[in-house]
Amino acid sequence: MTTLVLTVVGSDRSGIVASVADAVAAHGGNWENSQLAELAGAFAGIVEVSVPAESADPLRAALAGLDGLHTVAVQAGTDAAPRPHQDLVLHVLGNDHPGIVRELSSALSAHGVSIERMTTETRDAAMAGGRLFQATVVATAPADVDIAAVAAEIERLAAEIQVDVTLD
């Protein structure tokens, strides 16, 4: 079996996931993992599938012809063995302002920490007015990274950019 990673982007409509799943199944593939979302009328997803090696190119062609999708990018997945790592989860909450994601992601990257998943949201602040920014970041660090140093840097940065960050 060959692992493929599909990036799917289009205007949101009923049936997008079904049409991708139908194409995968029609080529003898299996839907392995995915992250899919609708945001502001657009649909985007990343999907890991496995297919017989001889079906990879025909599946690529079938996906390229799906109606209503602006982009379907297909790349070969990796079968690299997992390396020892440490998991981190950050919860961020504060008044919304430009640069929060940039600052946090730069600080994590500087310590060799890789963001695996991140969800962000802005919403009206109930009592104070203005907008609140909220994020959950799931990340991994190499086993030799000093998590205490990462936590200290995140705490320092949180005070500087005026957000609350909890680190699990």
Description:
With 168 residues, the chain is of the alpha+beta class. It has 2 domains: 2-76, Alpha-Beta Plaits (2-Layer Sandwich), CATH 3.30.70; 85-167, ACT domain (Alpha-Beta Plaits), CATH 3.30.70.260. Helices cover 27% and strands 46% of the residues. The strands form 2 sheets. A 4-stranded antiparallel sheet has the order 2-3-1-4, covered by helices on one side. A 4-stranded antiparallel sheet has the order 6-7-5-8, covered by helices on one side. Helix 3 packs antiparallel against helix 4 (147-161). The chain is flat and about 55 Å long. The chain starts with a strand and ends with a strand. The model has no long low-confidence stretch (mean pLDDT 90). Residues 89-168 form the ACT domain.
CATH H-tier superfamily of the largest domain? ACT domain
Count helical runs: 4
Secondary-structure-derived class: alpha+beta
Low-confidence segments, given as residue ranges, are none
Distance between the termini: 37 Å
Amount of beta strand = over 45%
Q: Helix amount, in percent?
A: 25-40%
H-E order: EHEEHEEHEEHE
Morphology call: flat
Q: What's the level 1 CATH class of the largest domain?
A: Alpha Beta
What name does CATH use for the topology of the largest domain?
A: Alpha-Beta Plaits
DSSP, total strands: 8
Biggest sheet: strands, sense, closure?
4 strands, antiparallel
Radius of gyration: 20 Å
What strand line-up does the widest sheet have?
2-3-1-4
* Count of folded domains: 2
- Using the 3D structure, state the CATH architecture of the largest domain: 2-Layer Sandwich
Q: What is the arithmetic mean of pLDDT?
A: 90
Domain ACT: 89-168
Protein name: Amino acid-binding ACT protein
Pfam families: ACT_6
